[in-house]
Amino acid sequence: MRPVRLWPALPQNHPLNKLVLSASSCVEQSTQWSACSRSCGAGVSTRVSNQNPACKLQMETRLCKVRPCSRAAQPASSKRVWGRQGRCEASYTSPGPIRLVHQGCYSTRAHPLRYCGQCTDSRCCTPYHTTTAEVTFSCPTGRLLQRAVMMIHSCVCHSSCPYAPFRNPALWGYRP
Question: Which segments constitute the CTCK domain (predicted)?
């Protein structure tokens, strides 16, 4: 078993993350993260994983934002550069670190974000390499929330567009 926090949403030094499990025969399993539920603006990405203390398969979600919906927030097309093997280097970073917003709560620190641009042909530009960061949000009531958030590192252009309406049944009626 690899050394991982039992409860990733809690700080690493939290007492629940210091518990030592007895030798377990749990074989870790996870699906790939789904495409973001929205092509622009805030959405969610899902996967099924047993990387939890009970070693039970559970659906996990992470917040995601492939690109802002506002055209004004996207760079001019003259900045787009095409890489090899169909990789679209039309990704761009936010003008500066941004405080993320989730259900009226703001991230406690600002994050430099990378977004995917638009492909100049009929293909889709979607995240290619991503990681998941645990982000703390502070709400007006003083409550703190921890949420998993997708961080984009690179994007790719391809013909299989994941943003057809209602493509992911697991998200029907889901509100993060």
Answer: 88-162
